[in-house]
Design goal:
- With about 375 residues, this protein is of the alpha/beta class.
- About 40% of the residues lie in helices and about 20% in strands.
- It folds into two domains: about 120 residues, 2-Layer Sandwich (Enolase-like, domain 1), CATH 3.30.390.10; about 210 residues, TIM Barrel (Alpha-Beta Barrel).
- Strands 4, 5, 6, 7, 8, 9, 10, 11, 12 and 13 form a ten-stranded mixed sheet that branches. A three-stranded antiparallel sheet has the order 1-2-3.
- The radius of gyration is 20 Å and the shape is globular.
- It starts with 8 loop residues before the first strand and ends with a helix.
Length: about 375
Amino acid sequence: MIRKSDLTVAGLEARAVNVALERPVQTSGGEIPSAPLVLIDLETREGTTGRAYVFSYSTFALEPLRRLVENLGKALEGEALAPLEVERKLGAKFRLLGPQGLTGIAASGIDMAAWDALARAKELPLVELLGGVKKRVPAYGSLRSMRPESVVEEARELARLGFDAYKVKIGHGDVNADLEAIRALRGEIGDDVLLAVDYNQSLSVTGALERLRVLDEEGLYWIEEPTRADDFAGHARIAEEARTPICIGENWWGPHDAHKSLEAGACDYGMPDAMKIGGVTGWLRTAALAEPVGLPLTSHIFPEISTHLLAASPTAHRLEYLDTAGSILKEPVKIEEGHALVPHGPGIGLEWDEEAISRFLVR
């Protein structure tokens, strides 16, 4: 009899899909009209399949990312399915190349699929394998739209999910354009609902300080990535001068970046991205860094796995609800009364809708 902890990697399949979005994601750096995803199926010799997906942002990076994931999977064939050991071996391969960019994304995707396979083999939801319990995770509605008229329309659609917090992207114009979007949304959701904004790194430190003197009067939940993501000193200066909390972290490349950010005092809220932070392994290490200093953690996209990770994090705060993969899943993440629900099944809970995938498959 094979013990369920004795699993061996048999192979890995990586498929590229370019999923149409009902609404494009608008940012200060441009529009994302579709979701270019790499779907990962990690097979074990014992018959368990672990699933995950990663997001290439641009279609020109989709096929290179798919090939990188697949090539790394070949290097793991015959190895024990032990996520920490897999992470160590992949890290050794990237020592000279570096762990950022596509290499980091590919490794994170494999890490997530490995943890999913392990949890499925033990017939546990991922959160329970990590020592947590299934719970309702507070979430907020992250808007794809930036223009006032479309912001209001989208907020009305999201309201049916019961959110008591929202986020809108700004920075496509001057501070008056920022205020126009903020106030249009305020007029729809009311003054009692929390409202965060996201600049997507579009300002200089000086420019951010100038705008924040205005935005500090708006009673915002937080201001996200006002300047370049890796400028931790700049964010620390902004956080020190602003009355409004500062949130960064979606571009932390692993726990080492998170540690540098914490040392600098760069933010009031941390936002690790499961794909960039190092998958489940990197998230757990980052959550361990956040706990001693009481840094509240929210998540960045990937709501399916982020629900599990936040439910297992001691300083969990809120989940960002911005769905990019729901249309190719049999059961997209569920939101009830503004909370994300951990799925009942084993692992992360990802089950591909093969019919939908066939429509978006990039061959």
